[in-house]
Amino acid sequence: MFKKEQIIKGVSASPGIAIGKAYVISEDILKVEKRIIKDAELSEEIKNLETALLKTKREIVDIQSKMAKEMGSNYANIFDVQLMLLEDRVLLEEIIERLRKELLGVEYIFFDVLKKYKRALEKLEDPYLKERAQDVNDFGKRVLKNLIGKDASRIKELRNKAIIIAHDLSPSEAAVLNPEYVLGLVTESGGSTTHTAIMAKSFEIPAVVGTGSIMGNIEIDDPIIIDGSRGVLIVNPHQATLKEYENKKNKIDEKFLNLLKLKDLKSQTKDGTSIKIMANIELSHEVKSAINHGADGVGLYRTEYLYLNRSDLPSEEEQYQAYKLVTLQMTPNTVIIRTLDLGGDKLVSQLDMSYELNPFLGWRAIRFCLARPAIFKVQLRAILRASVHGDLQIMFPMISNIEEMEEARKIVNEVMQEFDKEEIPYNKDVKIGAMIETPSVAMTCDHFKNKADFFSIGTNDLIQYTIAVDRINEKIAYLYDPAHPGVLRLIENIIQKSGENNIPVGMCGEMAGESRYLPLLLGLGLRNFSVSPLIIPELKLVASSVTLDQAKEIAREVMGLSSREKIRQYLSLKLREILGSDYAELIEA
Ligand code: PEP
Ligand code: MG
User: Fold this and answer.
1) Which CATH number is 380's domain given?
2) Residues 109-128: pLDDT tens digits?
3) Is 293 annotated in the active site?
4) pLDDT by residue (tens digit) across 239-280?
5) Active site residue 447
6) Which distant-in-sequence residues (6+ apart) come within 8 Å of 181 by Cβ?
7) Atom 4 in ligand 1: which residue has the minimum CA distance?
8) Which domain holds residue 71?
9) Is 341 near ligand 1, meaning CB less than 6 Å away?
């Protein structure tokens, strides 16, 4: 049957073009593999189910009481059906009986029994009862997540090359994307700085996010084109469109190859001012890609990825090995290890982090670590042990006041004292810095003199808190904009005040990786940048094409403009002028 070509606009998340077949990950179809078990394992399987049910009950009661507090008990009642299912003896007995008879993994039996319940409800005439099928589905997903101990199974199933289409991917799912199979990625939700977008970039997988509702229009194996740089998705392309994009893809692949040749360019401006272009990494093995793209170090190691997709916490030794590996490979360059930044959109089941109404304003990052010093200390011990292997520095995420900085440093000092007693070597002069992600710290960064050894501007969060725009909400992605004059003034203030107080400052949010902002940021006085490895050669090229005087003039001009659109247009125009037509084409291909 002939299918109509559809062109869908979303938000650009990771550059490049992908052409392939759709692999649609529907929300309510969970696939669970069959696993054969032995008689002797029966009691262990039943115990696992009971533990998962108990954990699910705690989660639901917790959410319910929070909802009751925030929105009233009527809303909280929506979980009643799920609680009833948790107490349902008949359901439990049916599962146990089948387990004994069939000797298959408990997750499969549980899933299969629940599927029958769901189908039976869907067949009913009564619309109220029919709707309860959704409750059964939600309940099943919750229990399965606790039973399997992770929620990344949807992606792992992929065994053929395809373009993933999903409503949403959690950071833990994004962390297991396999570039060998995942040609491209599209999500209905999200903005350009969601962690899914960031992971796609580090795996060099073209991605478009925030398309809004599209899954109803796409079937498994439909031909798909993604233009990640422009944020465009084409479903069932015509032959001519396919040809056009095949050509474009070749051009872009060539562009990346050509840019890669520039990876060993010195990181400096045209008139010889040295700068640093470092890499953001999420997993230790990415340090190779950082080196291959010419990074001057690792400016942001998002260590929370070590905590995802598992049912336990990473031990001190495991963390030490990961930090040591990255540090040794990067020596003599700096490696900045960001301490645990969980919460927000990165939740882990093993840490009792429950649902919050405003997770990005909630119990996340340093707030969580200060409340759980035992967990924090394990990480700090691992980092300090690794500090003897090179220039390793520590950075705290989401600092919102001076007391948090003091408190976090105090805990580092405690660990150092423990090490002195235990005679464990570490770098006594290890540098300890803070991310600037909140407007409160952006405005008061001068107070951090003698408290923070360096700063790194986390624009991904700083922008969402400054403009009051949720970075993962596709409906308002149009408002999320580094070019907002309010954001630029905050950045200008940070650079100026940090300079006056001799606190080195860099930028590690996604804004640093958008080449059109580089001349402006250089002109404002920024010298350190940390970006996705893929972007490093491009930034080196832009830096080496602009003089400091030109950059200062650009900054002067931009800081006088009040319109985001005008700022973006002006910066794009200047980038073209700076690079000249040959190179501009290289970047715009
Ligand atoms: C940021 O907020 O800019 C940042 C680098 O941290 P993350 O994207 O991990 O929140
Ligand atoms: Mg952040």
Assistant:
1) 3.20.20.60
2) 998 898 888 888 878 877 77
3) no
4) 999 999 999 999 988 988 999 999 999 999 999 999 999 999
5) no
6) 158, 159, 160, 161, 162
7) 458
8) 39-148
9) yes
